[in-house]
Design brief:
Blueprint lengths: L2 H37 L8 H11 L11 E12 L7 E9 L4 H14 L3 E2 L15 E7 L2 E11 L2 E9 L8
């Protein structure tokens, strides 16, 4: 073996290594592109757009709880859910207890939400003894994005109010 053969082998190894690196970069780029198509190109929770929109959603003014309601300790928060398919959901919610009649909760939000600019998405829920209270949903545009206000019964005498939006600005459903 002479010096020329050794140099050619070194060059061949270098070319093969470079070709493998290019192939891996192309495969990685292709996988990223495919994932973007499947998950959505509008960003994720930890990107600046997700953080900024979550702050906007968290600051949305919601009607106060009915008189006599008590906040559940540790029952308020905001989160960004980017593992639910193609939509990245932004949610800010508050839990509270209320010893009064569930009809009073319905009465309260049915009046207070429209007064704050929210529009009901369905009919007023009917209460049936022994049956869980159906969600009440309201919509409005917040900073040019469709936003949902939902009032839900979560447990005995416990309710939560949540503000929901989708990061890409599409319309969330109740």
């Amino acid at each position: 073996m002479n010096a020329t053969d050794s140099g050619m082998r070194g060059s061949t190894k270098l070319l093969v290594g470079a070709a493998c690196a290019v192939a891996l970069a192309l495969v990685g780029g292709g996988l990223y592109w495919a994932a973007t198509l499947l998950i959505g190109a509008e960003g994720q929770c930890d990107e600046p757009k997700g953080v900024a929109r979550l702050a906007q959603v968290s600051a949305v003014a919601v009607p106060p709880a009915p008189a006599g309601a008590a906040p559940v300790p540790g029952g308020s928060g905001a989160e960004c859910l980017d593992d639910s398919g193609t939509e990245v959901w932004l949610v800010a919610d508050t839990y509270y207890t209320y010893d009064g009649d569930p009809e009073k909760v319905v009465d309260h939000y049915w009046a207070a939400a429209p007064a704050a600019g929210w529009k009901a998405t369905g009919s007023r829920p009917k209460l049936t003894p022994g049956i869980r209270l159906a969600d009440m949903c309201f919509r409005k545009e917040v900073d040019g994005n469709p936003t949902l206000l939902r009032v839900s019964y979560s447990a005995d005498k416990e309710y939560f109010v949540s503000v929901n939006a989708v990061l890409d600005g599409s319309r969330p459903d109740c």
